[in-house]
Specification:
globular; ABC transporter permease; transmembrane helix; Membrane_comp_ABC_pdt; membrane; mainly alpha
Length: 452
């Protein structure tokens, strides 16, 4: 199985490079957060406590700040790494069905996938250690320059944050690989072959249970925020509620994507004609993989909008806290960057998988321009659906928070912030989709059919 796993890594370079990139950036963020926390501990907790006055208070701020940032970053990392690896495994259902048909045992398939993931995770974590260390030092410089902590704090990051970040990233990857491989290994070969091109089954008992728990938790925190909390302290429950809302919606993504695709089918068909109709048919048939691209858009739009407008609303109402604002802006920027990386990964992997489909379309008379137009419309649908879901996440977070402040429902802050987030994510979605499709179209149709 080890030799077969290495052969698969060489053959499916695009998919595994995407997984490596997702793991790499997650490990960089977690290593940086761990370095900041160790720095704060070394300046606050004996026997490392610093003597200069004011340093210990700044160190306490740094500890709390890195804990909040690291916790949410870890949740986002687990989600993005899990979704990326699940997509990679989904694309290999046909290959696994053939292996099952020739006598490969389910346990052997699972071991093969786990070994592949372990190799990818080791490479990604090893590459992330030095950039993570440097990123932590850069973040401390920015925090000190903004006045959140004193400039007397010196950056210290030893082996503990590196091991913790690497272990967290590898655990997330291996857990996601085991969960994704379990269904593929236990499915009957005939069923797996039927599912390999157009996947229809997505909802399982554990997935539904986790989705319900996330949505129930988000609802509970929203109620607590709007009815129990008062003033600035309401942000302590509003922020976590955004993560729970986003997690629940992401778990139910394929079903919600199907519903919203039906809603926007007629408008997009009327706007783009037959090309739009073909794009909508593809989206309906591939709703589970479309949902894989919708989720990063939802994350970037929803969480960034919620975190930024939490601070603009607080600043407009009661002045706010510079530390909280800095953390939220840092979180928003990191989430956008990481979600964008995940989005580009998803679109590149999806386009590489569709080379056979594109080749068949070209053989029956479709031009490269028509195929690019079709995928461009699909990316527009991804942006619209992701924006709708992300806006819901932001609204469910911000409305109770504003209620806790002054009884109103609408957040305070310039509307251009929201429009800029949506425009940036939408433009990047279109650019990544069209670029990945263009790269796939460079392969001649006959060659694409022969190699797939």
């Amino acid at each position: 199985m080890f030799a077969l796993a290495l052969q698969t890594l060489r053959f499916r370079r695009t998919s595994f490079i995407a997984s490596t990139v997702a793991l790499f950036f997650g490990a960089v963020i977690l290593t940086a957060c761990g370095g900041l926390m160790e720095t704060g501990i070394r300046h606050r907790v004996p026997p490392f406590a610093a003597v200069p006055p004011g340093t210990q208070q700044a160190a306490s701020r740094l500890i709390s700040m890195s804990a909040v940032f690291g916790g949410i970053a870890a949740m986002v990392t687990v989600f993005i790494v899990g979704s990326t690896l699940a997509l990679v495994v989904q694309q290999r259902l046909g290959e696994m069905a053939l292996l099952r048909a020739i006598g490969t045992l389910p346990g052997q398939l699972r071991r093969m996938i786990v070994v592949e993931t372990l190799v990818v995770a080791l490479v990604a974590v090893a590459l992330a250690l030095v950039p993570g260390y440097l990123a932590g030092g850069w973040m401390l410089e920015q925090i000190a320059a903004s006045g959140v902590v004193t400039k007397g704090i010196t950056y210290h990051a030893g082996w503990i944050p590196m091991v913790t970040a690497g272990g967290t990233s590898m655990l997330a990857a291996l857990t996601a690989a085991f969960i994704a491989s379990r269904r593929a290994a236990l499915s009957r070969p005939a069923d797996a072959l039927a599912e390999s091109r157009l996947q229809h089954r997505w909802l399982s008992g554990p997935r539904l249970a986790f989705a319900v728990l996330c949505l129930a938790g988000g609802t509970a925190l929203a109620v607590v925020t709007g009815t129990v909390m008062n003033g600035e302290v309401a942000a302590s429950t509003a922020g976590p509620s955004a993560m729970l809302w986003a997690g629940g919606i992401a778990l139910l993504g394929p079903g919600l994507t199907k519903v919203l695709t039906g809603v926007f089918h007629r408008p997009l068909r009327a706007l783009f004609g037959l090309t739009g109709d073909l794009a909508m048919d593809n989206a309906r048939a591939r709703r589970i993989r479309i949902a894989g691209a919708v989720s990063p858009v939802m994350l970037a739009t929803g969480l960034s909008t919620a975190l930024i407008y939490l601070q603009t609303t607080l600043s407009a109402g009661q002045g706010g806290d510079g530390v909280g604002a800095w953390v939220d802006y840092l979180l928003a920027g990191s989430i956008i960057a990481y979600a964008v990386i995940s989005l580009v990964n998803t679109l590149v992997v999806a386009a590489a998988e569709r080379r056979r489909e594109f080749a068949l379309q070209r053989l029956v008379g479709a031009t490269p321009g028509q195929i690019l137009a079709m995928t461009g419309i699909e990316s527009l649908l991804v942006t619209i659906v992701g924006t709708v879901l992300g806006t819901f996440v932001a609204a469910a977070t911000l409305a109770p928070f504003r209620m806790a402040l002054d009884g109103s429902w609408l957040p305070r802050g310039p509307v251009w912030i929201y429009l800029s987030i949506v425009g940036f994510v939408g433009a990047l979605t279109a650019l990544a989709s069209v670029s990945a499709t263009g790269a796939a179209l460079r392969t001649p149709p006959a060659e694409a059919l022969a190699t797939l």
